[in-house]
Amino acid sequence: MKPFSLDMNPRSALAVALNPWSVGALIICALVLVPIIAVGVLALFPTENIWPHLLATTLPRYFKTTLILMLSVGVLAASVGTGAAWLITRYRFPFAKWLEWLLLMPLAIPAYVGAYALVDFLEYAGPVQTALRDVFGWQTSRDYWFPEIRSIGAAVVVLAASLFPYVYILTRAAFKEQSGEAEEVARSLGAGAVARFLRIGLPLARPAIAAGAAIVMMETVNDFGTVDYFAVQTLTTGIFNVWLESHNVGGAAQISSVVLVLVILLVTMEKVSRRKIKFFNLSSRHRPVKRVPLVGIYGWLATLACLIPLLVGFVLPFSVIMSHALDNPESWVDPGLARALTNTITVGGIAAVLTVLAGVFLVYGVRLSGRSLPRLLLPVTTIGYAAPGAVLGVGILIPLAVLDHRIAEIIESFTGERAGLLLTGSAFALVLAYCVRFFAIGQGAADAAMGRVSPSLDMAARSLGRTRGQTLREIYFPLIRGSIGSALLLVFVDCVKELPATMLLRPFNYETLATRVHDQASLENLGDASPGAVLIVAVGLVAVSFLARANR
Q1: What CA–CA distance (Å, rounded) separates 183 from 196?
Q2: Count of CA atoms in the C-beta half-sphere (13 A) of 158
Q3: Cα dihedral angle (214, 215, 217, 222), rounded to 10 degrees?
Q4: For residues 359 and 472, is the Cβ–Cβ distance under 8 A?
């Protein structure tokens, strides 16, 4: 008797290829990839070609500024994250156990919230310059020099302080996995701490550092709130300017295509670097590296080195926005805040559920199909996470607007009444953008979780007469429930913080917490913006605490 196989089916090969799970998986792939394809089509065939104008005027400046910002933030975040990870994994010093997890907390602060807080803290009327004038008796800004706050340098600091935990968490794991034998041999040969870091620790951790730095640079390219508040002209702000101010969709798509090419090159370089640099532990008796105690001034210097990024990335911005929120209690009962909170929970919750369910469906469908095409498309669907929100906004809104008008014409031909814009006039476009943007999280969690389920369980269930749907519900879901819950939380948190796509795709007079905070802060009304910012940070802290537990 032949053993049971998923490939054994009495139906024809065509029926197998067209089973609902495989078809559904291909449809999900198409929905995720359509916005990216739409950007390319709009850029290649615009209604009004402004490439010559863009190349002669703003595009070189946008590109140069974006490149400088991206590389500067990447280098600074990689340096801070790698240095903190090395100290935490190699040494024992005061408060090291607390700092190991506290260094994740800046992830809860969106970069644009950090920008508002930094400007409020350091501007002319802020507490720092006010204290300087009181102490030294200065009267006006002409009496002393102070660095320009709204500048590209400040944007680099804010973005790096918000994003360095991406490098820290990956690099810390890489340093922890390194063998203690290599450290002991290097120490016995007279290598000092700096030499061991440069010759052993750093080369072995290069793939993790590269991966973390790539995420940081992609998030930097995606950022809109920070650079807009600091008046830094990047490719992302250029998309908003060309589309919303010049009303040129083709031009916005052309700038979006430049951003997309830049991000794809970045992802490709990161993957190539990881493929070329591989290290293996050949020892059967792997021992972790023992942490060396740092005593006296050296221990406190290590504490200070880890404390500074925490202060800049979390303590300062959270303290500023919380103080404003407490000073303006009436802002907490503003009806606009309640509506923004309701809208955020609604669209974020719907998007999180749909994203994770679609990820589970896609991964399960690919596993069942056994075909090469779905398997090839599976990693391609993660490109949405690399694509900036502004790019997805362009790629989603235009095709949806065309579809919207077709639906309205069909309804009017049958009913004689104008239906209005059902897709772009509602939160549908926003939910779709969130699903595409963060689909990689749901898909990745489902793929990793299902990969840990033994195929024999699937085969046993099918041999007992269970359908594919029953097998997914009764076998897989109980085993992958924890991973699915984590993915739901992470997608929801990212939806709450997402700003560029929300600004482009939200219906008229529709606010989320992110857009409300940005709009109020842009009007220099940090008092009304602070409650929304506190709520965003609170949601982020829940995710960070969960992430800390998962990485113990």
Answers
A1: 7
A2: 30
A3: 140
A4: no
pLDDT band at 2 (very low <50, low <70, confident <90, very high): very low
Please provide residue 288's backbone torsions phi and psi, each rounded to the nearest 5 degrees: -70, 160
3-state class of 186 per DSSP?
A: helix
**Nearest of 114, 234, 464, 513 to residue 347 by alpha carbon:** 513
Q: Are 404 and 364 in contact (CB under 8 A)?
A: no
Long-range interactions of 276-280: CB distance < 8 A, separation 24+: 277/206, 277/207, 278/207, 279/204
DSSP for 454-510, please give it: -HHHHHHHHHTT--HHHHIIIIIHHHHHHHHHHHHHHHHHHHHH--HHHHHHSPTT-
Nearest alpha-carbon partner for 159 in 63, 82, 224:
224
Question: Which burial class, exposed, middle or buried, applies to 429 when counting CB atoms under 10 A from its CB (0-12, 13-18, 19+)?
Answer: buried
Nearest by Cα to 239 from 498, 39, 52, 524: 39
> 464-496 as b/e, with b when 16 or more CB fall inside 10 Å?
eebebeebbeebbeeebeebbebbbbbbbbbbb
For residues 178 and 165, give the distance between their C-alpha atoms in angstroms, rounded to a whole number.
20
Lowest mean pLDDT across 203-207, 273-277, 349-353, 540-544:
273-277
* Torsion sign (Cα): 299, 304, 309, 315: positive
Q: Which residue, chain included where needed, has tokens 């060396």?
A: 292
**pLDDT at position 152, please?**
93
CA atoms within 13 A on the CB side of 359: 34
Write out 311-372 in H/E/C secondary structure. HHHHHHHHHHHHHHHHHCHHHHHCHHHHHHHHHHHHHHHHHHHHHHHHHHHHHHHHHHHCCH
Ordered domains of the chain (ranges, CATH) = 14-45+340-492 (1.10.3720.10), 46-280+291-320 (1.10.3720.10)
Q: How many residues does the chain have?
A: 552
Quick one: which of 496, 493, 541, 491 has its CA closest to 516? 496
Distance of alpha carbon 257 from the chain centroid? 20
Q: Per-residue pLDDT tens for 163-217?
A: 999 899 888 888 887 766 666 666 666 666 676 776 777 777 788 888 888 889 8
**Cα angle value 328/329/334 (rounded, 5°):** 95
Strands, E assignment, 224-345: 292-293
Could you tell me the end-to-end alpha-carbon distance of the chain, in angstroms, rounded to an integer?
47
275: exposed, middle or buried (Cβ count in 10 Å: 0-12, 13-18, 19+): exposed
d(CA 486, CA 490) in angstroms, rounded, equals: 6
Q: Which pLDDT belongs to residue 63?
A: 92
Beta bridge partners of 165: none
Name the residue among 348, 345, 341 with its Cα closest to residue 492: 348
Q: State the Cα angle at 352 between 348 and 356, rounded to 5°.
A: 170
